[in-house]
Structures are given as structure tokens and as C-alpha cells.
């Protein structure tokens, strides 16, 4: 039940800090909220200026992104308040003015979300039957996890987040060094990492395999995919959004997670890097992603029949598209209409520890350049040194090839060492031999018998890309990329072969 205005005033006076302002029909209050264990959470409440205990309003809770303060969402919070919502945004614990230590979406963070909801119900005219959570990046992950822990949450919008934390920063048993390094550095600058987080990062960067089970267990506890049954049981309407080039949380795990959700759901994938698709919306500028987010909340918290639930639940925008031209599909599995198998014949042997010139760009920058300038990472395929890169090319295609979904590589590898790393890249190659990166992914192996072949199956990061007519596809595999930590001993060699009994091939999902 919503508290009276008197009790709200009493509660605010008990906070260690409180301020208020009002403009254009919206009130803003800066408050401190007791989180799990009494940890102070710095927050703000944004609501219609005339909101009082005489009527209940739907509530939207917005946990902040990693390293950003609670004013991050102020522009969008005002828009929501103008539309009749009570909005509560708060600094996640361990960051900025909030107390505690950074728990990386651990149990205390999820308990905090419920404490924030409790406070809002006691101190604002929030409706207990119409509660939603939304967030960007870190806030997205916390929102999804909270939906599995708190059945009061009826709708979630999770933008540029993750479903499988281990699969995001440790895919193919390979450390995503730049992504983890960026998060670690930003956490130290703007917050107070927990001892557990510092230990996990030390183990992560040291490549200590004895700590791998601990890393996986730590990540699983923080992965919405591991809470799928509870999320489905609670039944929140969930909207997921991500960018094809997200260099921190690649889109694969969102797509897999989406397919397994049983409640109302929506998946939007678009060009860009981590959080770049939502950035202009944080500045208060027109933004398609945030507009769709508000429509989703309006539908499932306010009951508005705005048509968003009647649209195809999977919405994709090709990286080569101009404008906001989304394609609609009934499911993720229905996105490709055909799986084309490209044979990878012959044997290729390369020397490890040397960058061939093929790479996946720089964290945050590569996908942003692709989004805004249509310039993905480039490589001159004819000039790649064949001693450092294995290269296979198709013939030119007479018609456009619309790559949609997850490219998969199956090959046989032989190493003269017991451990190693390979990075696969798929390029769109034009008439002059310049390759534009379509997708990539790393894979690492350990404890292999030197000289003994073994099979490798690798899923590259999901994408949507239109290869023009007259172009060809090129698969390049090398051993070094600045985005990843590689595990090739000095002087190692990798051989890629295609045995008759188990031929190598690339599976390319395409749409007619």
C-alpha cells in the first residue's frame, strides 16, 4: 500500500541526505535508501509534480551502469515521470556515493533491488501491482537477476547487458582482456571493488587454470541464464536489447536466453558497440531504443494497447542498413532461412605468437565506428602473411548474401604444444581484396597431446550483415588479437586440416 505524504516526509528526514526540485511538471528528490545490510544507496526519485497518496502510479526502478552515477538516467526518468510513472534510480552499491563494495551483480546487489522497491512502496505513491525494472549494461544484468528473485517485478527492459557472464568475458575459454581490463579500471576509479572481485580479476588475468572452476562458479552466480527457471516462474515481461558489435557483452547469450524465456518477450539487436545504441537517449535526444523501452513498459505496467506486443518479437537491424529499418521474426531460430555450408579444404599451418594484421578492433571503438560510419575493422586479405594466418576464400557471389544469425566453424587442429589460442574472423571481401569484418571469436585449448589432431567447434559472435553481390567471403584464423589473452607458447605452430572422415567447414546462416 502506498504511504501517506506524512510518512514519506518522515522517512526522507531520516535519510542522511535529501534534496528536491521541480520543473516542467516533474519533481526530483535526491535521497539515501537503506539497501541490503543497511548499506546506503544514493538515489533519486523522479515523479509527476502532482503525485500524492491519492492515486497509485506504476514504478520503474533503474540501477546504474558500471561506474556511472544515478544521474545517468535523469533525462529518461523525466520522460517516464511526465508519462505518469514514479521512477527511482540509484547508484549500485560500491560506486560513487553509495556505500558497500562492488559485488558485480552478486546476491547483495539483487537484495538491494528488492530493498529499493520496498522503500519506494513505503515512501512514494508507487503501485505494488505495477513494478518494472530497466537498465543499461550493469543495470540490465541486475534487473534481469532481480526479476528471478522478486516476483513483484512485472516488466524488465535490459539494454546492452548479459545473460551468461562467463560466456561474455571468457568465451571459448579465452579471456576477453580489453573488456575485463576496462571494467576493472573503471571500477577502481569510481568505486570500491570487493576483495572477491579483486581476487577474481587477479586470477582471470594471470591465466591460472587451477582457478578456472572458481571463475566459472563466480560468473554463473551472476548470470541470468542460470536463474532462467525462476525468471520464467515469476513471469515478468522481458525486453532484451543489444548491439552486434558489443565488445563487452556479445549478443550470443542474449539470443540463447531469449529463446528459453516463456513469458512475454522481445529481442532487439542492432549495429553498435557496448551501450552506443542507447547513448543519445541518455542525453535526452530522440532514440529508438529508449522509445521502444517506454512502449514496453507502457504495455506491461500501464496496460496500454500500443501494439508493441503484436509485433514480431525478434527485431533485427542489419549492420549495413541505413536508418532505423528493423526486420521482424517470430523467433531467433527463424532468423536464418538457410544454413550454407562452406567447405574448408586443404591444410594450413601457421606460426603462433605473431599478429597477422587481422584483428577485431578495439573495445568500444570498433563497433561504434561500424555503427556511425559503417567502417568495421579492415584487413587486406591478399597481404595477410600466410605463415601467420590461415585463409580460405569463397568465389564471388552473383547476388547479395544476407548473413543473419550465428556463423559456426568446424575444423581439425593439430598443435605441437599442449595449449594454444586461435582467433577466427569472417570477412566481406570486395574486388580490391579489402576485407570488412563480419564477425569473429576466439578459442583456447589446454592439456592436448602435442602432434595429435582434435576437433574444434566454434560459434562466432552473432551478427546481421549484407554482403554485396560480386563480393566473396573469407575465413581467416590467426593466433593473436589485442582483444584477447592468447595462450600460445613461444614458437608454437598450429595446423588446420580437413580429414576425409571429418571434413572442415564453415556454416553461414543466411536469409533469402
Automatic annotation (TrEMBL):
<dbReference type="InterPro" id="IPR005674">
    <property type="entry name" value="CocE/Ser_esterase"/>
</dbReference>
<dbReference type="Pfam" id="PF02129">
    <property type="entry name" value="Peptidase_S15"/>
</dbReference>
<comment type="similarity">
    <text>Belongs to the AB hydrolase superfamily.</text>
</comment>
<dbReference type="Pfam" id="PF08530">
    <property type="entry name" value="PepX_C"/>
</dbReference>
<dbReference type="InterPro" id="IPR050261">
    <property type="entry name" value="FrsA_esterase"/>
</dbReference>
<dbReference type="InterPro" id="IPR008979">
    <property type="entry name" value="Galactose-bd-like_sf"/>
</dbReference>
<protein>
    <submittedName>
        <fullName>CocE/NonD family hydrolase</fullName>
    </submittedName>
</protein>
<keyword id="KW-0378">Hydrolase</keyword>
<dbReference type="InterPro" id="IPR029058">
    <property type="entry name" value="AB_hydrolase_fold"/>
</dbReference>
<dbReference type="InterPro" id="IPR000383">
    <property type="entry name" value="Xaa-Pro-like_dom"/>
</dbReference>
<feature type="region of interest" description="Disordered">
    <location>
        <begin position="1"/>
        <end position="23"/>
    </location>
</feature>
<dbReference type="GO" id="GO:0016787">
    <property type="term" value="F:hydrolase activity"/>
</dbReference>
<dbReference type="InterPro" id="IPR013736">
    <property type="entry name" value="Xaa-Pro_dipept_C"/>
</dbReference>
<feature type="domain" description="Xaa-Pro dipeptidyl-peptidase C-terminal">
    <location>
        <begin position="294"/>
        <end position="506"/>
    </location>
</feature>
Amino acid at each position: 500500500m502506498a504511504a501517506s505524504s506524512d510518512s514519506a516526509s518522515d522517512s526522507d528526514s531520516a535519510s542522511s541526505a535529501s534534496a528536491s526540485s521541480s520543473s516542467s511538471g516533474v519533481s526530483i528528490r535526491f535521497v539515501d535508501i537503506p539497501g541490503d545490510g543497511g548499506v546506503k544507496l544514493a538515489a533519486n526519485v523522479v515523479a509527476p509534480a502532482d503525485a500524492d497518496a491519492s492515486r497509485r502510479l506504476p514504478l520503474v526502478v533503474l540501477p546504474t551502469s558500471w561506474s556511472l552515477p544515478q544521474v545517468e538516467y535523469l533525462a529518461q526518468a523525466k520522460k517516464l515521470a511526465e508519462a505518469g510513472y514514479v521512477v527511482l534510480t540509484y547508484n549500485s552499491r560500491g560506486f560513487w556515493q553509495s556505500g558497500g563494495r562492488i559485488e558485480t551483480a552478486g546476491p547483495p546487489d539483487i537484495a538491494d533491488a528488492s530493498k529499493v522497491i520496498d522503500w519506494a512502496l513505503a515512501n512514494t505513491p508507487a503501485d505494488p501491482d505495477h513494478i518494472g525494472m530497466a537498465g543499461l549494461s550493469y543495470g540490465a544484468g541486475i534487473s534481469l537477476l532481480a526479476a528471478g528473485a522478486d516476483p513483484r517485478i512485472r516488466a524488465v527492459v535490459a539494454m546492452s547487458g548479459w545473460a551468461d557472464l562467463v560466456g561474455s568475458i571468457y568465451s571459448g575459454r579465452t579471456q576477453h582482456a580489453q573488456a575485463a581490463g576496462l571494467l576493472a579500471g573503471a571500477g577502481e576509479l569510481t568505486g570500491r571493488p570487493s576483495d572477491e572481485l579483486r581476487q577474481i580479476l587477479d586470477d582471470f588475468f594471470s591465466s591460472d587454470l587451477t582457478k578456472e572452476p572458481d571463475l566459472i562458479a563466480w560468473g554463473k552466480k551472476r548470470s541470468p541464464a542460470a536463474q532462467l527457471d525462476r525468471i520464467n516462474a515469476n513471469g515478468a515481461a522481458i525486453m532484451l536489447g543489444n548491439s552486434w558489435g558489443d565488445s563487452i557483452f556479445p549478443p550470443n547469450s542474449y539470443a540463447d536466453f531469449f529463446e528459453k524465456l516463456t513469458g512475454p518477450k522481445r529481442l532487439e539487436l542492432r549495429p553498435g558497440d557496448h551501450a552506443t545504441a542507447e547513448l543519445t537517449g541518455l542525453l535526452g535526444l530522440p532514440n529508438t531504443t529508449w522509445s521502444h523501452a517506454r512502449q514496453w513498459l507502457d504495455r506491461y505496467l500501464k496496460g496500454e494497447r500500443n501494439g508493441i506486443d503484436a509485433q514480431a518479437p525478434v527485431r533485427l537491424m542489419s549492420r549495413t542498413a541505413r536508418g532505423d529499418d528493423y526486420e521482424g521474426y517470430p523467433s531467433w531460430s527463424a532468423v536464418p532461412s538457410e544454413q550454407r555450408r562452406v567447405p574448408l579444404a586443404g591444410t594450413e599451418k601457421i606460426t603462433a605468437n605473431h599478429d597477422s594484421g587481422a584483428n577485431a578492433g578495439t573495445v568500444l571503438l570498433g563497433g561504434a565506428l561500424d555503427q556511425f560510419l559503417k567502417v568495421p575493422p579492415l584487413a587486406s586479405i591478399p597481404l595477410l602473411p600466410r605463415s601467420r594466418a590461415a585463409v580460405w576464400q569463397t568465389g564471388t557471389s552473383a547476388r547479395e548474401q544476407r548473413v543473419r544469425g550465428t556463423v559456426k566453424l568446424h575444423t581439425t587442429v593439430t598443435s605441437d604444444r599442449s595449449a594454444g589460442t586461435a582467433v577466427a574472423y569472417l570477412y566481406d571481401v570486395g574486388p580490391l581484396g579489402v576485407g570488412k569484418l563480419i564477425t569473429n571469436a576466439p578459442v583456447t585449448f589446454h592439456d592436448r597431446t602435442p602432434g595429435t589432431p582434435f576437433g574444434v567447434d566454434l560459434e562466432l559472435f552473432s551478427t546481421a550483415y549484407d554482403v554485396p553481390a560480386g563480393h566473396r567471403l573469407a575465413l581467416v584464423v590467426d593466433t593473436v588479437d589485442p582483444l584477447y589473452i592468447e595462450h600460445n607458447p613461444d614458437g608454437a605452430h598450429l595446423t588446420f586440416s580437413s580429414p576425409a572422415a571429418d571434413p572442415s567447414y564453415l556454416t553461414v546462416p543466411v536469409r533469402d
